[in-house]
Amino acid sequence: MVDGGQGDAGPLSLGQLLRSETVFAFWSVVPNQHLVEAVTCAGYGGIVIDAQHGLHDFASIERLVPSIVSCGAGALVRLPLGDLALGARALDVGCAAVIVPMVNTPDEAKAAVAAMKYPPMGARSFGPLRGLAYSGLERTDYVHRANHITTLFAMIETEPALRNLEAIAAVEGIDGLFVGPNDLAVSLTRGHGADPAHPLVTQAVEKVRLQCVRHGKIAAIYANTPELARDYAGRGYRLVAMGNEMSFAAAGAAAALSGARGAASN
Questions:
Q1: Tens digits of per-residue pLDDT, 97-127?
Q2: Does the domain formed by 10-253 have CATH 3.40.640.10?
Q3: Phi/psi of residue 151, nearest 5 degrees
Q4: C or N: which end of the chain has fewer Cβ atoms within 10 Å?
Q5: How far apart are CA 218 and CA 77, in angstroms?
Q6: Average pLDDT in the 3-7 region?
Q7: At 246, is the pLDDT very low, low, confident or very high (cuts 50, 70, 90)?
């Protein structure tokens, strides 16, 4: 959860923003500072640094956070599968939020809380290198408020996660549920497809949103297309992430080439 008030500065204000409006985030897979700066300054409210399927590691997270913050956005990190320790380190260097993939049970959600939240809620070790400076808080105040001004998302992307959805949503310290529609499509169709617009996925997307409303969590999701992003925002999703450097570059390059060939043929 995120509280308001003085001291919610830098990337730590992201959670507060998510409570009041939809934030569109860019999904980064390439550890290139110049690309991330260019994308962030285009107006995205957040940048998701993907350390699971993307090419990011702790070094690139540490390097990119200042660039993201300087453009007025929040830095989020999607962890590698099973690497909760990286989440705490990402918060230490100033990330606003952590996204934990493949959370299928309430016990897995509780383990994420233990790693990312300070006592008494969790067991995060104290060492906020940049997080403290970005927060604008004194050391003791940071300890008291860090659990509220950083955001922890549990990814819902499998059939077992849907079966345990209400129990996962009820875990204290889980601030939001993040739908992974591509993995969800693979899981719900038993590997027959990865279509995020599949009716089973659409139903699951609404089910997750309703649980977020019921439990006071932030509804978040990845969108494969701008059209899906607009649809998810209209449904009430507060964080909508989309794109990546490779897909955007390929689409832009194809559009430019098509335009050039069209002009050359005239």
A1: 999 999 999 999 999 999 999 999 999 999 9
A2: no
A3: -120, 130
A4: C
A5: 16
A6: 38
A7: very high
Per-residue b or e along 30-57, where b marks 16 or more CB atoms closer than 10 Å to that residue's CB: ebeeebbbebbeeebbbbbbbbbebebe
Is residue 7 within 8 Å of residue 32, measured between CB atoms? no
Query: How does DSSP assign 210-245, residue by residue?
Result: HHHHHHTPEEEEEESSHHHHHHHHHHT-SEEEE--H
Determine if the peptide bond prior to 128 is cis (ω within 30°). Answer: no
Eight-class DSSP state of 79: P
Q: Which of 34, 53, 56, 148 is catalytic?
A: 53
Query: What's the farthest any 2 CA atoms get from each other in the chain?
Result: 70
Q: Which residue has the tokens 């999607």?
A: 78
Contact 182, 191 (CB under 8 A): no
* Beta-sheet pairing, 218-223 with 176-179: parallel
pLDDT tens digits, 142-185: 999 999 999 999 999 999 999 999 999 999 999 999 999 999 99
